[in-house]
Amino acid sequence: MMQFAHSSLKNSKGLRFYRLLGSGKGEGFNPFPDWSVYALLQVWDSEAHANEFFSHSDLIQRYRAKTREVWTIYMRSMVAKGLWDKQQPFEKSKELDSENPTIAVITRATIKTSQLLRFWRYVPTSEKPLAKSDGLLFKKGIGEAPIFQMATFSLWSSADALHQFAYKSKEHRVAIEKTQELNWYSEELFSRFQPYRSVGTWNGTAPLPELKKSD
Questions:
Q1: How confident is the model over 146-188, as pLDDT tens digits?
Q2: How far apart are CA 145 and CA 91, in angstroms?
Q3: Are 140 and 124 in contact (CB under 8 A)?
Q4: Global pTM?
Q5: In this structure, what are the phi and psi dihedrals at residue 179, rounded to the nearest 5 degrees?
């Protein structure tokens, strides 16, 4: 389903960018794969194009037939720094809602071969504060290739909650310093989004039930 989805996705009307992603065991970065969870990241020209795809695509119907659970989250881009495969797929939306505090974050990096051991040794330490972070609603490690190309997707109750973790966690600050000092990555991207619609469930629960357009 990962290998043979490309032809269908490339021909999807209104689809600007996509990535088929596996996931790591547990919730954060993990070099060992979680064979039960997969992600499909897409950037659309419009929500109408996305709805058409989710309603009528043969590919999605095949996915649904092979899964016990599907969760789809619609988001608007707030800010993005860096590149993904030498391109910047996320343009800032003009439809952000000032009354919606929820923030989604995608961080993605390609790790240099020479830095793999150092990087993975520090991951458990850098992720310790996440377990006790107030305002963290969800997190999952995703990626295109195990070990080398990793990403995280996380949901936060507010920008302040994210800021508290990013800049007041000692372990995370050290991780940032090590990134700059050791130059771990050959490419990296940090992006924030505003979730505005949540469809489906995760582990039997509807995430983000407060969103007005949740189904």
A1: 778 888 899 999 999 888 877 666 665 666 666 666 677 889 9
A2: 25
A3: no
A4: 0.87
A5: -60, -45
